[in-house]
Design brief:
The complex is a heterodimer of chains A (378) and B (289). Chain A is mainly alpha-helical. Chain A is built from 15 helices and six strands. In chain A, a hairpin with a 7-residue loop joins β5 and β6. The chains are: A mainly alpha (378), B alpha/beta (289).
């Protein structure tokens, strides 16, 4: 067992009780993968906790250094397998930025549509599992129903549901299939009603409120210091979204709002993500309306060779800021390719958020952080 | 594409790397000479002298041959106007980083350009004098190089005292440069109010520790642990410096350049995963080429 520093909260309780160490995971369903949380308990209360991660470590960054640039892209699908499109976008954009490549406008719009669809599917999976963790089985079934529609679109587009390998350096391999626009529009027409269904089930549900309101509170100051990004940061009232602060693709041309919370608790993070889904739909609708004609693949040299230098590029993934730091020596393989995983940094906040709460709340907080272990462990 | 008939590495998978490299080099040189135009296609398998176990003399002869051929191929490529990088046999990185090696096709933009007219950077240089080695941009992004002993002071200053407060530490990572026997520890900073990014880099000799910043930004706690896990960089004063992704007791630091790509620590596996026998002929050394 790793050494957990002694905390003496138990002396504040009425009866001095013995502390117990409980290992939650790595096969526990509520840890969303292979996360092991070592809890130090005083009765039901968490005195201290430690995360044990790395069960899915595949040495991705080491592999990157030994692969040609085009060969690296599929690996990114397997990092955050819930949001493979976003991950792929991060990689191709970073290489394009380092090489100074132009992406044709049609490809940019298609990328935005697909990435936002992926954000929806990721958020739906989050909602489903988060609700399931804290007792809302119906929502789980409903959310998976809608997620299925998105995955069908992905399957038609890329031939894969999860590991999409959607984009290529310089654009996209495939243009949209003929029914793509109609199918996406049909989904967008349907989706707001479905969102209302979820909210009917949750927003005034006493159990849901009891399990989320005031749980896992994190202040804005702490959230920034912890490096939180995505909904966990915005739930604490900090207005930070890479799509606004440093727009990539065609986000600068599109209108959307960044929802922010107030209290920084699990319920606010839930509200933020629900509103983000509405905004994603809005982005998709606008992008579809403006979708230009033209090629989807820009001019790319036969051999991808990134000029010497370095670049850091980040995008707003469904889970937070995904960053990629590329150091090139001018060759055909990266000298160093470092991914800044949003989930990894966000999970680092778990201790701050969950210590002092009950064991069952740890589950709610993990759910509201929306982590994916494939990305944390890399 | 390359042919699939490449013979499986027979018999002794543990043949020394140097041998493999020599073979690869020889094969490469032949292919290059054949092509002459600089198209990098994998060598035909037959041409690779992969048979038997070569003696040392054999090996040296091959290396010499490979070198000569590679040089010829390089000359041919350069004549064809392709520039081309050093014909290094192993997939390891060319030692000379950055340097003026960029292909001579387009106008050669320098990888790093000095920052000249930036009031904030100028003020920073004024307060830290020679401790800031240089302030440069790459791809339009600002980088400040600082001596490692003062990295913490600089970061503290940027967080609390500077004209632009960088309130968020986005990332801490490193890159290994074995030829300089050093790491570059990289801090990615972001200022939410000013929407501005800054990268602070400190070149740290391999055997030296660097001060932690985990008390300045809590985010650094896990990020520094990862840098320690992957590179073996010791962050002095870190409250909880132990491995994070790799298991306790792991030997070596995978993201150092000398750490092999495909490698199995058989003793560790036997002890922890209870796999006591490694199958005959299992290829644990295979490298991408």
């Amino acid at each position: 067992m790793n050494a957990i520093p002694l905390v003496t909260h138990h002396t504040e309780t009425l009866f001095d009780s013995e502390q117990m160490v409980l290992s939650m995971g790595p096969q526990h369903p509520s840890t969303h993968g292979v996360l092991r949380v070592i809890l130090k308990l005083d009765g039901e209360r968490v005195v201290d906790l430690d995360c044990d991660i790395g069960y899915l470590h595949r040495g991705a960054e080491k592999i990157f250094e030994n692969r040609l640039y085009p060969m690296i892209a599929p690996y990114f699908d397997r990092l955050d397998y819930i949001a493979a499109v976003s991950n792929g976008l991060l990689y191709v954009e970073t290489v394009e930025k380092a090489m100074g490549l132009e992406v044709p406008p049609r490809a940019q719009y298609l990328r935005v549509i697909l990435t936002e669809l992926n954000r929806l599917s990721s958020h739906l999976l989050w909602l489903a599992t988060h609700a399931l963790d804290i007792g809302g089985f119906t929502v789980f079934l409903y959310a998976f129903r809608e997620r299925e529609e998105i995955l069908k679109i992905f399957e038609n587009f890329f031939g894969a549901r999860l590991t999409c390998h959607a984009f290529r350096i310089g654009g996209m391999t495939y243009d949209a299939y003929p029914e793509f626009e109609a199918q996406v529009r049909a989904f967008c027409d349907l989706f707001p009603k479905r969102l209302e269904e979820y909210e009917t089930l949750l927003n005034e549900n006493r159990i849901w409120l009891g399990r989320t309101v005031g749980i896992g509170i994190i202040s804005a100051e702490d959230a920034i210091s912890l490096g939180l990004t995505g909904a966990p940061l915005r739930g604490s009232g900090v207005d930070y979204d890479v799509r606004k602060t440093d727009p990539y693709e065609c986000y600068a041309d599109l209108e959307f709002d960044i929802p922010i919370g107030e209290n920084g608790d699990t319920f606010d993070r839930y509200l933020v993500r629900m509103e983000e889904m509405r905004q994603s739909r809005r982005i998709i609708m606008q992008a579809l309306d403006r979708l230009p004609d033209g090629p989807v693949m820009g001019k790319v040299p036969k051999v991808i060779r990134v000029p010497a230098g370095e670049v850091y590029h980040s995008i707003e993934g469904p889970k937070g800021e995904l960053g990629l730091y590329l150091v090139s020596d001018g060759g055909t393989k990266p000298y160093r390719l470092r991914m800044r995983p949003a989930s990894f940094v966000n999970l680092g906040a778990l201790r701050k958020m969950a210590v002092g709460s009950l064991v069952s709340d740890v589950v709610a907080v993990i759910g509201s952080l929306d982590i994916v272990l494939g990305e944390i462990d890399r | 594409m390359s042919d699939e008939t490449k013979p499986a590495p027979e018999g002794q998978p543990s043949a020394a790397d140097a041998e493999r490299e020599a073979k690869v080099a020889a094969a490469k040189a032949k292919a290059a000479a054949a092509k002459a135009a600089g198209e990098s296609v994998a060598a035909p398998a037959e041409s690779a002298p992969a048979q038997a176990t070569p003696t040392d003399a054999d090996k040296e002869a091959k290396i010499a041959a490979a070198k000569a051929k590679a040089a010829a191929a390089k000359a041919a490529r350069e004549a064809a106007g392709d520039g081309g990088d050093a014909p290094k046999p192993a997939p390891a990185k060319a030692p000379a980083k950055a340097a003026a090696k960029a292909p001579a096709k387009k106008e050669v933009a320098p990888a790093y350009a000095e920052i000249k007219d930036d009031a904030f950077i100028a003020a920073l240089r004024a307060s830290f004098q020679d401790d800031i080695k240089e302030a440069v941009t790459s791809n339009g992004q600002q980088i400040v190089r600082v001596v490692p002993e003062r990295a913490r002071d600089l970061l503290w200053y940027l967080r609390y005292d500077a004209a632009i407060r960088f309130d968020m530490l986005t990332d801490v990572t490193a890159a290994h440069y074995p030829e300089r026997k050093a790491f570059e520890v990289v801090y990615q900073l972001y200022s939410i109010p000013e929407n501005r990014r800054l990268r602070v880099k400190a070149e740290l000799p391999e055997d030296q520790p660097i001060y932690t910043v985990s008390d300045i930004w809590t985010a650094a706690n896990w990020l520094e642990r990862e840098a320690y896990d992957m590179f073996g960089i010791v962050f002095e004063g870190h409250p909880d410096l132990r491995r994070i992704l790799l298991p306790e007791g792991w030997v070596g630091f995978p993201l150092r350049k000398e750490y092999p790509v495909e490698y199995r620590h058989n003793e560790w596996v036997a002890e922890n995963l209870n796999i006591l026998e490694i199958p005959e002929g299992a290829d644990l050394t295979g490298k991408f080429d």
